[in-house]
Design goal:
Blueprint lengths: L11 H13 L4 H20 L4 E5 L3 H15 L4 E5 L6 H7 L6 E3 L8 E5 L11 H13 L2 E5 L21 E5 L17 E5 L9 E3 L19 E5 L4 H14 L3 E5 L11 E3 L3 H4 L4 E6 L7 H11 L5 E3 L9 H7 L3 E3 L3 H8 L6 H12 L2 E4 L5 E3 L5 E3 L12 H14 L4 H19 L5 H12 L1
Parallel strand pairs: 1-2, 1-4, 2-3, 4-5, 5-6, 6-7, 8-17, 9-10, 9-12, 10-11, 12-13, 13-14, 14-15
Antiparallel strand pairs: 15-16, 16-17
C-alpha cells in the first residue's frame, strides 16, 4: 500500500487507457487482475489480522480482483469466505473465479464477518446499485469492524465524487493503480475512509495530482525581509478580515507585510501600516498584492479594485472582490492572478459548477487565465494550462468565520516568496490545513493565523 500524497489522479477513462497501453505492450488482462488481487490480499492480510474475511464479488473485473484476493488469502491460511451478487461475466473474471475452490454464498443471504472486502463494482459503474444489492452491502459493511473497498466503494461515481444512491462509508479504500477523483471529491470522499494505492504495474501519469507537503525550507543564510517576499493587503470596509489575512501572511513566512488603509488597534507591531495611495500600490518591492477580505461591494470597493487591477503586481483576489469582477476582465488584465472562491463566490463569478468540481475549476482557470483555489472540504487548485491539485479532506473545524481570509494571506506569502502560482496556491492550502489539524477542535481564525508558523516549522 502506497500513501497518496503527490501521486497522479486519473479518471476512469484515463485509468483504462493506461491499462490498455500496458496490454498493448504485452501484459494480459489476466496478469493485471492477478497483480490487483495479490495487492488487495497483501493489504487485507496486514489489516485484518486473524479475523475472518468476507470478500464480496461482483460480475465484472472488480469482482475478479476479489476472487483472486480471496484465493490468495485462503492459500495463506487466512479464514476467508466469498459472497457474490452475480456470476462473473468478463473472461478475466471467469478465469479468476476458477481460482476460488470454496463455496460461494449469495450476497443477499451472506452472514456478516469482522472484515468485509467490497469488490462488487469498481470505476465502471455509473449508476446507483439496485436496491437489494445496496441494502445487503450496507448491512455487511455496517456490521463489520473493518471494511475495505477495492478501487472505489460500490455505488460511487469515480470521476466526479457524486453519490447516485446511498453508499455506506468504509474504513479503507485500496485504489488500484492510481487515485481517482472520487477518492478526494465530496461527497464520495467521505465514504472512502483512508485511501491507499495498490500498484498493478501500469505506468501512471497525468496533469492532476494529490496535494503533498511543499518544500518549506528555512530562509537562506543571506536572506532579508524583501527576499523573503513582501505582501501588501488592501483593507476594505471590514478591517478585521484584512488584518487576519495580513497576520496570516506574516506567520506563513513573508518577510514584510504592509496593510494598506486605515487600521485598528491590537494588530502586530511587525505589520506595517500605510495609506492606500498610488505610491503604496506602485511599490516595486510588492511580491503579492491581496484584495478582497472584508472589502465590501459598494462604489468605494469597486474603485479600490480598479486601482489594484491597474497595477502589474501578482494578485490574490478573495472574498467580496470576487463579486466585482468578471473572468473576461481578469483574462484581459493578464499577469499572475490567484482567485480563492468558495462555492457561492465561484457561482457568482463563473456560474453554477455542477457536480464535477474538478472539471469546473479547470474550466474556470482557463477562462479567467488565473489560478483557481476552489475552496471547500474538497479544495481544488487549478491552473490555466489544465494542471490541477486535489486536496485531502481537511478538518471540518475550518468552517469558521475568517478561515478563508487566513488562507488568502498564506497563499499571498507563498506567492510573494517566489513560488509559481499553482505551487504557491497549493503550498498555502497545505499549510492552512496543517495548521488547522494541529489546533484540533473549536479554534477561531485568529488562532489559525498564528498556528501557520508552527505548521511551517
Amino acid at each position: 500500500m502506497i500513501p497518496i500524497a503527490g501521486t497522479p489522479v486519473l479518471t476512469a477513462a484515463a485509468m483504462r487507457a493506461a491499462e490498455e497501453a500496458s496490454i498493448a505492450a504485452g501484459v494480459s488482462v489476466d496478469t493485471l487482475m492477478q497483480r490487483a488481487g495479490a495487492g488487495v490480499a497483501n493489504a487485507v492480510r496486514r489489516l485484518a489480522g486473524v479475523n475472518e474475511v468476507l470478500v464480496l464479488c461482483g460480475p465484472g473485473n472488480n469482482g475478479g480482483d476479489g476472487y483472486v484476493a480471496a484465493a490468495r488469502l485462503h492459500a495463506a491460511g487466512r479464514p476467508v469466505r466469498v459472497a457474490a451478487s452475480d456470476a462473473p461475466r468478463s473472461p478475466a473474471a471467469i478465469a479468476a473465479r476458477a481460482l476460488w475452490n470454496g463455496p460461494i454464498e449469495s450476497l443477499a443471504t451472506a452472514a456478516p464477518a469482522p472484515v468485509v472486502v467490497d469488490a462488487l463494482f469498481g470505476t465502471g459503474l455509473s449508476r446507483a446499485l439496485d436496491a437489494a444489492a445496496a441494502a445487503a452491502l450496507a448491512c455487511l459493511v455496517d456490521a463489520a469492524s473493518l471494511s475495505i473497498a477495492v478501487d472505489v466503494p460500490s455505488g460511487i461515481a469515480a470521476d466526479d465524487g457524486a453519490l447516485p444512491g446511498d453508499v455506506s462509508a468504509v474504513h479503507v479504500t485500496l485504489a488500484l493503480g492510481a487515485v481517482k477523483p472520487a477518492h478526494l471529491l465530496q461527497p464520495a470522499a467521505s465514504r472512502c475512509g483512508a485511501v491507499r494505492i495498490v500498484p498493478i504495474g501500469v505506468e501512471i501519469d497525468g496533469d492532476v495530482r494529490v496535494l503533498s507537503r511543499p518544500d518549506l525550507a528555512a530562509p537562506s543564510v543571506d536572506a532579508h525581509k524583501f527576499t523573503r517576499g513582501m505582501v501588501a493587503v488592501v483593507r476594505g470596509r471590514m478591517a478585521g478580515a484584512a488584518h487576519l489575512a495580513a497576520e496570516a501572511a506574516l506567520h506563513a513566512g513573508a518577510g514584510y507585510v504592509a496593510l494598506l488603509g486605515a487600521t485598528i488597534p491590537g494588530t502586530p507591531h511587525a505589520l506595517v501600516r500605510r495609506r492606500c495611495d498610488d505610491e503604496a500600490l506602485a511599490d516595486p518591492r510588492i511580491g503579492a498584492l491581496l484584495i478582497g477580505p472584508g472589502l465590501g461591494r459598494g462604489d468605494e470597493a469597486r474603485a479600490l479594485l480598479d486601482r489594484v487591477l491597474a497595477t502589474a503586481h501578482p494578485l490574490v483576489i478573495d472574498g467580496d472582490a470576487l463579486h466585482l469582477i468578471t473572468p473576461e476582465r481578469l483574462r484581459e488584465r493578464g499577469g499572475t492572478i490567484v482567485l480563492t472562491p468558495h462555492a457561492g463566490e465561484f457561482a457568482a463569478l463563473f456560474g453554477a459548477p455542477g457536480t464535477d468540481k474538478l472539471t469546473a475549476a479547470r474550466a474556470a482557470a482557463t477562462r479567467a487565465g488565473a489560478t483557481i483555489v476552489f475552496k471547500g472540504p474538497d479544495t481544488v487548485v487549478a491552473a490555466p494550462d489544465g494542471r490541477a491539485i486535489l486536496s485531502d479532506t481537511a478538518t471540518s473545524w475550518l468552517s469558521t468565520a475568517g478561515s478563508g481570509d487566513v488562507l488568502a494571506g498564506a497563499i499571498a506569502a507563498m506567492l510573494a516568496g517566489g513560488r509559481a502560482p499553482l505551487d504557491a496556491a497549493a503550498a498555502g492550502v497545505w499549510l492552512h490545513a496543517e495548521a488547522a489539524r494541529r489546533l484540533g477542535p473549536a479554534f477561531i481564525a485568529d488562532d489559525l493565523a498564528r498556528a501557520l508558523a508552527e505548521a511551517r516549522a
